[in-house]
Design brief:
The protein is of the alpha+beta class. It has five helices and nine strands.
């Protein structure tokens, strides 16, 4: 008895596996609906029955092709398509069907020939229709040949370009530019220019009250090396300012970086020498003043 039950379970499992090794479809309904909603042709198929060539199944450019079916497998397909294979030149035209509902397993496909006429060639042609159903759960996909359909495309041929293009003079284009923006009053701009320059005037006035001492210049003149280093230092600062001006007006970034690298190195070296000389003279003056104070005391 136990041996019989095990054989029975094995047979049941084999039947289940065999049943799920391919897709099963039923309730296949194929119809052509006119623009006003009336059905021009309808076929209810049972797999693997096909539409016979004797049955008229033709669609006009304004018709709709509708297909409904039901997947009997417990699994649901990943994709379902209808392939139209032209009998003239064997050119594939694949239309993706709507997704199959998970609950009921029903699938629908609708094709509007008025919107997809570019995918079908001009004139009347016959196509072989094939329903394709597949998914990762079932190893073997379904390729169900539904039958033949005659698609009556537009009677007019597509416009053909001329073989030779003639180049001719076109009418002259007159551009209209915007008028120049109005500038502000000269008196107002002059007032604000003076207002911007006023701190410079204040600075010069304060310098005049403090008095300008030329002693550092005299000390530099006594030592030619210090004088040259001071000239190099101020010259490098002037060069850096000119590089910034050139960058603002016409020079690009990479040349500016090169110039700044050279001038900055010169400014650092010469500036350090000048500041050292100034510090040395300051220390000498401090020592002299200390010696004078000691002698007086």
């Amino acid at each position: 008895m136990a041996k019989f039950s095990s054989l029975f379970l094995t047979a049941v499992l084999a039947a289940v596996v065999a049943g799920s090794s391919s897709w099963q479809v039923a309730d296949i309904n194929l119809s052509i609906v006119a623009k006003d909603g009336t059905k021009k042709a309808e076929h209810k198929l049972v797999y693997p029955k096909v539409i016979s060539s004797a049955e008229a199944f033709a669609a006009d450019p304004t018709d709709h092709l509708k297909l409904s079916f039901k997947v009997q497998n417990n699994e649901r397909p990943h994709q379902a398509m209808v392939r139209f294979l032209s009998k003239d030149d064997q050119a594939d035209q694949i239309m993706v069907a709507a997704s199959v509902k998970k609950a009921s397993g029903k699938g629908r496909f609708e094709l509007d020939f008025a919107k997809s006429h570019k995918k079908f060639k001009y004139g009347t042609r016959k196509y072989d229709m094939t329903l394709l159903v597949g998914g990762p759960q079932v190893e073997e996909s379904l390729q169900y040949a539904l039958g033949e359909i005659e698609v009556r495309g537009p009677t007019s041929n597509p416009p053909v370009r001329a073989a030779r293009v003639q180049y001719e003079v076109q009418p002259e284009i007159h551009h209209q530019f915007r008028p120049d923006q109005k500038l502000i009053n000269v008196a107002i701009s002059g007032f604000f220019s003076l207002l911007v320059l006023s701190p410079v005037a204040v600075l010069i006035g304060l310098w005049s009250q403090l008095g300008i001492k030329f002693e550092p210049l005299k000390a530099l003149a006594q030592n030619p090396v210090d004088l040259i280093m001071a000239a190099v230092f101020f010259g490098s600062l002037t060069g850096i300012e000119y590089v910034f001006y050139s960058y603002w007006t016409h020079v690009t970034l990479f040349p500016v970086l090169q110039y700044l690298g050279v001038l900055s190195a010169v400014a650092i070296a010469s500036g350090r020498s000048v500041l050292s000389a100034v510090q040395t003279r300051r220390l000498k003056r401090t020592e002299k003043s200390d010696d004078v104070n000691k002698k007086e005391n």
